[in-house]
Structure formats: structure tokens, C-alpha cells
Amino acid sequence: MAEPSGTGIRVDSSLLADTVVGSDYDPMLSKVIAHGANREQALERLDRALAHTAILGVQTNVEFLRFLLADERVRAGDLDTALLDERLADFVPLAAPDDVFAAAGLYVQQALSRRAAGSLWAAPSGWRVGGVTAPVRTAMQTPLRTETVSVFGLPEGAHVQVGDGEMLLASVQLAPGVMSVTVDGLRRDY
């Protein structure tokens, strides 16, 4: 999970890593507020903040909000209650890219490694005598895409394959509140 921060940005959030999100409460888990010297600056800050938001494990409306921020009526402040219904029909969500699936697979691998700490036989390393390591496979699903993610080796230096795609060199580092994933040389923080 990565919530945005920076000049002119405030986040009101109840999200914590490993929080169980039930259906008994208000569906608003977090709100991002932006301010600036003028409307244009505030909207740019809000869009940038949303672009730097990553929440895994629960469906969000971040992509739809960024879609709305690009609308000329929103930018001009010409809003009415019909806007959401009108724009929803034009919104086409994007399927999660491979690097998001790779990050999720590495996170699962990291969690399994932590649980197996100190036990060579329980470690999900895929180690075999005299052979290539076996992958740890995890089925993953987003609203628009389902894939099997295969992680070969340990999360600190692994090869990851999303579905039948190419093998990607990847690593993960965990710090309080952030998971840094590097896939084929490109680092992202979640």
C-alpha cells in the first residue's frame, strides 16, 4: 500500500497493511484532498497524488477518478449530479499490467518466506537437488484479468513469469508501510 503525500496533499485514511475490509461499514476507506494556489494547480496535484496511490487487495476507484479529472467540465468546475452517470459509460478500465501481477506474486513469496523463517524445508525457494528451482505458483485475479504468477527463487532475487509471458528478473524489499519491487530494472513502491 502506498498513499500519496506532498505539497498541497492531505490523505484521510483508515487503511493499514493487512486490514480486513468488510462490507458492514462505509465503503470510503480513504480520501485524498488537494489544494493549490488555483483550481488548475489543485487538480494537477490531485491527479499526481492519485497516480502515486497503490492499494493492493481491494478494488478502488482511483483509475475512474483520474479519468474524471481529465474531463473538461470537471476542470472548469461545471459539475452537476448527472456527470457521473454520463461519464461512466465512456470509462474503459485498463487491465492490470504484468508488473502489478509480478509485484503481487513477489509479495506472496515474501510472506511465505517470512512464515518459514528458520526452516529450510518450509522455505518456498523451489530448491531441488542438482536441478533448476521449481517455481512457487500463485493464482491471481483482478476485475479484468486472471493470471498464474510463477516465482523462481527467493524474492530478494527471483525470476517471475506472469501467465505464459516472458521471464522477468525481479526483487522485492519490504520496509514499514512500503514494498519496493524492481522488475527488469524498473522500481515501483507499493
Automatic annotation (TrEMBL):
Pfam families: Biotin_carb_C, BT_MCC_alpha
Domain of life: Bacteria
MF annotations from Gene Ontology: ATP binding; biotin carboxylase activity
Record flagged with keyword Nucleotide-binding: yes
Record's keyword terms, sorted: ATP-binding, Biotin, Ligase, Nucleotide-binding
EC numbers, comma separated: 6.3.4.14
Domain named Biotin carboxylation: residues: 1-89
Keyword ATP-binding applies: yes
Cross-referenced PANTHER family: CARBOXYLASE:PYRUVATE/ACETYL-COA/PROPIONYL-COA CARBOXYLASE, METHYLCROTONOYL-COA CARBOXYLASE SUBUNIT ALPHA, MITOCHONDRIAL-RELATED
Protein name, UniProt field: biotin carboxylase
